[in-house]
């Protein structure tokens, strides 16, 4: 198995984690600088310890993740992360200019000598408010943006695009991706619609903000769809994201997590703004599995329940390895995307180091 | 509900010993349309273009209601016949629009008589094809043909039904004259065409897939490629607004169509 280190660049100073958009009146540049520096330090450490990937994500108007443009953070990692792949998981393509996304990802691939992983995301409903895009058109926009990005990467002659949501007269991007025919592409496949899409286009599958049981069900559906399209994904084409904290003993890790649990961002951003969430839901944003999709974004529980549900890895290295094996057996994922809980402060680098030294080598053998 | 193209008048012209039927609507710069291997079929794209152009859609001898045509031995002979039909209508300056088979025919017409041709519009053209691609819709069952032609059959609109005899006749002449997928002498002659060309490819087209588009760009001296998202082989029927808007812009402004000239202001 492979491990990716995911730092959200969380703002750890006083800020609202319950409303969206979060107001900036408590913002201080010192806390922000600290968050940026910690992110760079943690990614550097992770790379030195042999993490296979590092992950950056896109979220807007929220202190829990100060990377509204993951491309900028990915670019900042070019000289910092020297061996690991840089997983940009990823731009919310329906709210962005797809040509710009193709260009920026190609730049990162060129800057890293072909170490970029492309996660093309739909994003949660609130992200649509960010750039004033109608969330009920998100799936159609995703389909078109995805196809356009892929064509930007592969078409060698200038071409125009007459889409439904996007129109360009001539496109010919420079630089182009190093990886041929194109970088590995993943998408979030929690919903049945997304599972079908990923299977149809032979894309990798990512599961986040869910439980291992729900993800296993969605992965089973995705694999069945892949079979229907005549292929099967490699283990590495299934990513599962969860939080991680490792300490020398189970007791210590558990106590750390209990103390920090109050601040865990375990509720989806959309749910921090009732009007946004309800308007999107009424407009059909969640698709045909509306109950399941809404439930997974609201789930929150005690640390012990979250371990049981496979939402966090907590414990000593031995315990965490057992938790990993269980997740792998249930889900068949080849990559774990591990979010470090930055509110643990000084304990985070130690957790990364313990994971890197005591868990990662054994995880690689799984 | 009216047939697609109900506003198009029906006429015919004598040329090169053939009586050639055509449909016509609109006024402005003439746009001469050459249909695909399935015969004359008007679409929403023709209707939209007729709002600003004089659209003349010929039925090529040997297709549709015309008698079987054994006389035209090559695509070049057929091109000379169609140029004669244009001359008989006394058109001195016009653009050509060719769909699939008609795409190759319109290129051949421009090769034979380039001076009056202002520009050429190609939709899923059959002049350069990939080996091993999907068969032309004329070669498969009617059900398969529908899948190859339309990503959105619900948008086609009411059409005149086609008898099996007409389908067989269309297939016979298009297969006889279309030439091999890679027609080296023809491609060599394409390099001499100096007028601006707009070539549209459907992202879902399996007959003339978007992967072939770059060959047109590399062969024609002045060619703009446009990918029409979510369109199969019958681009003009699948995405009429998308196709007509870019074709109209190109016909009106030529190469300058690259630069957007409509406002992006939201509020005044």
Provide tags for this entry:
heterodimer, A: 366 residues, alpha/beta, TIM Barrel, eight-stranded parallel β-barrel, two-stranded antiparallel sheet, 13 helices, 11 strands, globular, B: 268 residues, Rossmann fold, eight-stranded mixed sheet, 9 helices
Overall spatial form of chain B: globular
Specify the number of helices of chain A: 13
Overall pLDDT of chain A, averaged? 93
What would CATH call the homologous superfamily of chain A?
Luciferase-like domain
Which term fits the overall shape of chain A?
Answer: globular
- Mind telling me the CATH class of chain B? Alpha Beta
Number of domains of chain A: 1
CATH architecture of chain A: Alpha-Beta Barrel
Strand order of the largest sheet of chain A: 1-2-3-4-7-8-9-11
**Radius of gyration of chain A in whole Å, from Cα?**
19 Å
Contiguous runs where pLDDT drops below 50 for at least 5 residues of chain A? none
Distance between the termini of chain B: 39 Å
The CATH topology name of chain A reads TIM Barrel
Strand-and-helix sequence of chain A, N→C? EHEHEHEHHEEEHEHEHHHHEHEH
């Amino acid at each position: 198995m492979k491990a990716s280190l995911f730092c959200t660049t969380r703002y750890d100073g006083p800020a609202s984690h319950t409303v969206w958009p979060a107001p900036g009146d408590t913002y201080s540049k010192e806390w922000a600088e600290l968050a940026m520096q910690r992110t760079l330090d943690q990614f550097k450490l992770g790379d030195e310890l042999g993490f296979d990937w590092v992950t950056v994500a896109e979220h807007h108007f929220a202190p829990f993740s100060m990377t509204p443009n993951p491309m900028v953070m990915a670019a900042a990692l070019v000289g910092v992360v020297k061996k690991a792949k840089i997983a940009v998981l990823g731009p919310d393509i329906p709210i962005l200019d797809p040509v710009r996304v193709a260009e920026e990802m190609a730049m990162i691939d060129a800057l890293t000598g072909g170490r970029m992983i492309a996660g093309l995301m739909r994003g949660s409903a609130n992200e649509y408010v960010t750039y004033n895009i109608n969330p009920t058109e998100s799936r159609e926009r995703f389909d078109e943006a995805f196809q356009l990005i892929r064509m930007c990467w592969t078409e060698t002659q200038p071409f125009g695009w007459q889409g439904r949501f996007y129109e360009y007269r001539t496109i010919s991007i420079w630089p182009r991706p190093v990886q041929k025919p194109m970088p590995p592409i993943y998408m979030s496949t929690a919903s049945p619609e997304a599972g079908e899409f990923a299977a149809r286009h032979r894309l990798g599958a990512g599961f986040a903000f869910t439980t291992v049981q729900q993800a296993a069900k969605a992965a089973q559906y995705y694999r069945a769809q892949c079979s229907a399209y005549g292929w099967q994904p490699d283990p590495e084409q299934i990513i599962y994201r969860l939080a991680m904290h490792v300490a020398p003993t189970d007791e210590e890790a558990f106590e750390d997590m209990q103390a920090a649990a109050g601040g865990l961002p375990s509720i989806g951003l959309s749910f921090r703004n009732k009007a946004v969430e309800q308007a999107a839901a009424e407009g059909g944003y969640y698709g045909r599995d509306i109950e399941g999709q809404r439930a997974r974004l609201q789930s929150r529980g005690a640390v012990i329940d979250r371990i049981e549900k496979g939402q966090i890895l907590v414990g000593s290295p031995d315990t965490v390895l057992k938790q990993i094996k269980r997740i792998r057996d249930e889900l068949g994922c080849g990559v774990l995307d591990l979010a470090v809980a930055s509110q643990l402060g000084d304990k985070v680098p130690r957790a990364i180091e313990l994971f890197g030294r005591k868990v990662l080598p054994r995880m690689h053998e799984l | 509900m009216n047939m697609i193209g109900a506003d198009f008048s029906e006429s015919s012209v004598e040329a090169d010993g053939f009586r050639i039927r055509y449909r016509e609507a609109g006024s402005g710069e003439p746009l001469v349309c050459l249909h695909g291997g399935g015969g004359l079929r008007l679409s929403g794209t023709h209707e939209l273009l007729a709002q600003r152009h004089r659209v003349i859609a010929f039925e090529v001898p040997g297709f549709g209601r015309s008698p079987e045509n054994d006389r035209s031995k090559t695509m070049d002979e057929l091109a000379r016949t169609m140029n004669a039909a244009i001359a008989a209508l006394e058109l001195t300056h016009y653009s050509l629009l060719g769909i699939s088979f008609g795409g190759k025919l319109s290129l051949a017409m421009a090769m034979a008589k380039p001076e009056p041709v202002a520009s050429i519009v190609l939709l899923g053209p059959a002049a350069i094809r990939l080996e091993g691609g999907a068969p032309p819709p004329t070669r498969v069952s009617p059900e398969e043909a529908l899948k190859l032609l339309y990503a959105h059959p619900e948008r086609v609109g009411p059409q005149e039904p086609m008898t099996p005899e007409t389908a067989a006749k269309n297939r016979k002449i298009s297969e006889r004259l279309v030439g091999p997928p890679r027609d080296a002498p023809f491609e060599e002659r394409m390099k001499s065409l100096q007028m601006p060309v707009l070539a549209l490819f459907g992202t879902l087209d399996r007959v003339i897939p978007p992967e072939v588009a770059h060959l047109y760009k590399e062969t024609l001296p002045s060619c703009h490629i446009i990918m029409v998202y979510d369109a199969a082989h019958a681009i003009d029927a699948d995405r009429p607004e998308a196709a007509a808007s870019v074709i109209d812009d190109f016909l009106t402004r030529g190469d300058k169509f690259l630069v957007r000239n409509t406002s992006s202001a939201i509020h005044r």
